[in-house]
Design goal:
This protein is about 30% helix and about 15% strand. It is of the alpha+beta class.
Length: about 160
């Protein structure tokens, strides 16, 4: 009776230096929010799952300064902060410790539970979120775009 083959190329355990270079993120919400925006925050945490805090609990007393102070101890590189105003929902994407901060206004979004509800045969497995997300920025900041698109691509690539 034979034994199973051991994969050597794709299942290499990363070294400590490689683990230190992996970007880690923190997805938080700030201020008063509705249930749908809180569900959006949990969905974004789920997408960023292998290298983010999924079960993070925020308090109303937490400020951005608190997250910045803890970021170096946890080895965080990015902060995604959702907030809601009368105008709409906003997303701030910042880089630690002193990187640029990008501001976005969220116009439309679909929650994961809504997408699963629309499918005829919904498929949801836990193995989908074991690998980090992949961002493809092919021709994102073309020649005709301004400096803000170049800054955005540089931040998203790193």
């Amino acid at each position: 009776m034979g034994h199973s083959r051991k994969k050597k190329r794709t299942h290499v355990v990363p070294t400590q230096e490689e683990l230190a270079q992996i970007p880690r993120s923190l997805v938080v919400r700030s201020g008063e929010m509705g249930r749908t925006v809180s569900a959006l925050v949990s969905d974004v945490r789920r997408v960023m799952e292998p290298h983010t805090a999924v079960k993070l609990r925020e308090r109303k007393s937490n400020k951005i300064k608190d997250y910045v102070a803890v970021s170096s101890q946890l080895g965080l590189s990015h902060l995604l902060l959702f907030s809601q105003t009368e105008i709409g929902t906003n997303l701030r994407m910042g880089r630690f410790p002193r990187g640029p901060t990008l501001y976005f206004r969220v116009d439309k979004y679909a929650l994961a539970k809504d997408c699963l509800r629309l499918q005829k045969a919904p498929h949801s497995s836990t193995t989908e979120f074991l690998t980090p997300p992949l961002i493809i920025l092919n021709n994102f900041a073309g020649e005709s775009r301004g400096n803000e698109f170049k800054l955005m691509t540089a931040m998203l690539q790193n």
